[in-house]
Amino acid sequence: MLDSVIRERWVDALSVLDVSCGIGTQALGLSGLGYHVTASDLSPEEVERAKQEADKRNLSVTFSVADMRQVFSHHACQFDIVISCDNSVPHLLSDEDILTAFRQFYQCTRPGGGCIISVRDYEKEDFSKQQVKPYGIREDNGIRWLLWQVWDPHPPTYDVAFYFVEDRGGPECHTYVMRSKYYAVSILSLMELMRTAGFDDVHRLDDRFFQPIILGTKKAQQG
Q1: What pLDDT was estimated at residue 24?
Q2: What would the pLDDT profile of 22-62 be if each residue is shown by its tens digit?
């Protein structure tokens, strides 16, 4: 899905920087399609897992640990495409931090290249009350996992508790929880921040990815 968006707008794009790669979900897929992928993430544990997944698939991806607010300082080079997917940008909890990150994304983008971000559409969410978000059931090696999130709103941010219930078929189950915080920033605000960072032709795409996509282009050099 990302490849089709890239090919429509940046036909000759070859190099990609994933600034919030996690365990490699987008980086591995794009590498498998022939892109030269460089990827970084704030979490050393997730970067290590991404390296293992790349090795399993015989994919050549350059992974490292970096804060997205410092990616140009870290990578010190430019790419055809910069991406940050899976609602990673709202981990930054203020407009100031997001703008700092977007300015770094802009520096990492070659003239004529582009930036792709995917985020939740928070304008469709109800932050007037606590919410439960079911994530279904998974079966793995005879173990049943039940998953759900609880959102506790504290506008403009909200806390997330992600619960994992491990059911091995006996009379007792084990529950694990991971916690995080997000900034419920609107897509319109993100688009304006991208423009402020220097990106041109900033617009939104729906129904092309599992989340809305925001695109921005760095103007080609003149003369």
Answers
A1: 96
A2: 999 999 999 999 999 999 999 999 999 999 999 999 999 99
Provide the β-strand partners of residue 160: 151, 180
**Domain locations along the chain:** 2-122+185-217, 126-183
CB 21 within 8 A of CB 41: yes
Please give the full DSSP string across 158-196, using - where no structure is assigned: EEEEEEEEEE-SSS--EEEEEEEEEE---HHHHHHHHHH
> Which position has the token pair 């900033």?
202
Residues near 74 by beta carbon (within 8 Å), at least 6 away in sequence? 40, 64, 66, 67
Length of the chain: 223
CB atoms within 10 A of CB 139: 9
Residue 222 has pLDDT above 60, yes or no: no
pLDDT higher than threshold 80 for residue 154: yes
**CB-based burial, 169-187: b 16+ in 10 Å, e otherwise:** eeeeeeeeeeeeebbbbeb
pTM for the full model? 0.92
Greatest CA separation for the chain: 73
Structure tokens that stand for 185 in this block: 């920033």
- Per CATH, is 2-122+185-217 categorized as 3.40.50.150? yes
* C-alpha span between 148 and 176 (Å, rounded): 11
SS3 85: coil
